[in-house]
Amino acid sequence: MRLNPVRTAQIAGGAVLAAVVVVGVAGLAFVDLPGRAHDPIRVEAQPPAAPAVAVCSGPLLAAGRDATQASLLTDGAPQQVTAGATSGADLADALLTPADVSGGAGPAALTATPPASSTDPADLAGAGSAQVAASDLVGFAAEGCTRAAMEAWLVGGSGTTGAGDLVVLANPGDVAARVTLAVYGATGAQTPAAGKDIVVAARTQRVIPLAALALGEENPVVRVTSAQAPVRASLQATLTRVLNPGGVDQIAALGAPTAELVIPAVPVTAPPGDPGASNTPTRLVLLAPASAGDATVTVTGDGGAVASAQTLPLLAGIPLRLDLGTLAVGTYTVTVAATTPVTGAVWTTTGFGAGSDFGVFTPADVLRAPTLVAVADGPSPQLSLVGDGGAQTVTVEGLDGRGAQEIAVAEGQTVRVPVEGGTVYRITPTGSVRASVVYAGAGAVAGYPIASGDAAAAAIEVYPR
To answer: Is residue 401 within a helix (H) or strand (E), and if so which, with residue range?
Structure first.
């Protein structure tokens, strides 16, 4: 059939109009019209399984062993690393280059790659420990190997005479990072020249003396922020008393400040000193970086009995030190409930004479899913579990599934389970718990919290429009 030009134009115009109407009606599904409500379209998306990466601090570092170069850093004692990953994952380790350590071995960067066919991320756990007995460095250190981050907080150091603390920055990635170190001290926050524009090249480690950032500060807190790439921050703390080394520890950085801190199972091994004594065997440092508020600090024993409780005012940006020197020998959990986000840690020592050691204990995250726990080698390691959210049962078993134990944990109760150094465990709570690994022995004290694993990450909800 042949159509004339006028008829053809009429048909074409009608088709175009019909198409516009169809598109417009379909578009109404994505446009919010007055008086019309609808549920948003949601799509659950599981990101591709990427490798899990954790970094350790590396060997204990010593300064001044070369009389001609007092500031030269060298390895003082090797770090023994224990690591494990979920079944089927490929676990690998590589050493980062220590740019500021002469002849140093460098820290370990651990990578767990899931099988190519898997959409679930691999869970990875690592921990390191080191023991040293030298004329300039004595003690035991243990830490969890943790992920790199764009922001982190370091608590537990000192810039006073006798302290030889070091800020340790590691970049396990392929892109250089530019780091800023801000210090919170007695006069508030400041960014010293030594803390600006610190370049941490890809797959390297940098070390900055804390005294260059916070000279004379008794309880400085350092905020680490990174641009271009995440870094893993930690603190090596050492102490010398009248030429006698008084201990060492490695302390992984903390995450963002929160209104509640729980520090499980702090071992108090030194008896209370005289009231008013300058040497306090146990103390807590708190910082409210953004705004003033109040903090209630509660110290409880293993059974949940309250040993002390007090409410303290916090000034914005100024660290607060609370002495806990009246605690009897035992194990305590320290809980902080604040009206403003805070960060903090507990420092404790085995004594004040030659051969003593100290440890810094930091808050633990809430664990609600099966989590791997790496137990580094050390004296009498124990896994400490603190109930969070009602009575429950926590299963503790070797990574291979052997030796499973079911541990009853009540709300607010701390339960300690002996574990074996150099071993990786899996803990599975029926509710939620906080956990840490703690060491205590003759002239040795240390511990580290357990972080939730990458495998616990949930799917992402996408709202298309």
So the answer is: none
b/e for 31-55, b at 16 or more Cβ within 10 A? eeeeeeeeeeeeeeeeeebebbbbb
Task: To the nearest 10°, report the CA torsion of 268, 439, 59, 252.
Answer: -70
Reported residue count of the chain is 465
pLDDT value at position 427? 97
For 25, phi then psi, to 5°, come to -65, -45
Which residues partner with 112 through β-bridges?
52, 91
CB atoms near residue 202 (< 10 Å)? 14
Contacts 24+ apart (CB under 8 A), 273-281: 273/325, 277/325, 279/352, 280/323, 280/324, 280/325, 281/325, 281/348, 281/349, 281/351
Nearest residue to 462 via CA among 101, 90, 140, 40: 40
Tell me the CB-side half-sphere exposure of residue 369, using CA atoms within 13 A.
9
End-to-end CA distance of the chain: 45
Query: Is residue 179 a contact partner of residue 231, using CB atoms and an 8 Å limit?
Result: yes
Instruction: Specify whether the CB–CB gap between 310 and 296 falls below 8 A.
Output: yes
* Range with lowest mean pLDDT among 22-36, 246-260, 311-325: 22-36
> CB 315: neighbour CB atoms within 10 A?
13
Return the exposure string of 405-435: e unless at least 16 CB atoms fall within 10 Å of the residue's CB, then b.
eebebeebbbbbbebebebbbbbbbebbbbb
Segment 152-181, tens digit of pLDDT: 999 999 999 999 999 999 999 999 999 999
Q: What are phi and psi of 12, to 5 degrees?
A: -65, -45
Q: Tens of pLDDT along 317-329?
A: 999 999 998 999 9
Q: Which residues contact 2 (CB under 8 A, 6 or more apart)?
A: none
Instruction: State pTM to two decimals.
Output: 0.87
Residue located via tokens 């020592």: 349
Residue type, 425: Y
Distance CA 24, CA 31 (A): 10
Separation in Å, CA 141 to CA 47, 238, 382: 37, 10, 15
* Residue 25, helix vs strand vs coil: helix
In this structure, the strands spanning 444-449 and 433-441 are antiparallel
User: What is the CB neighbour count within 10 angstroms for residue 81?
Assistant: 22
Question: How many Cα neighbours within 13 Å face the side chain of 215?
Answer: 4
198 Rama sector, left if φ>0, alpha if ψ -120 to 50, beta otherwise? beta
**CA distances from residue 236 to 59, 155, 340, 392 in whole angstroms, order as listed:** 10, 11, 28, 36
What percent of the chain is predicted at pLDDT more than 90?
Answer: 74
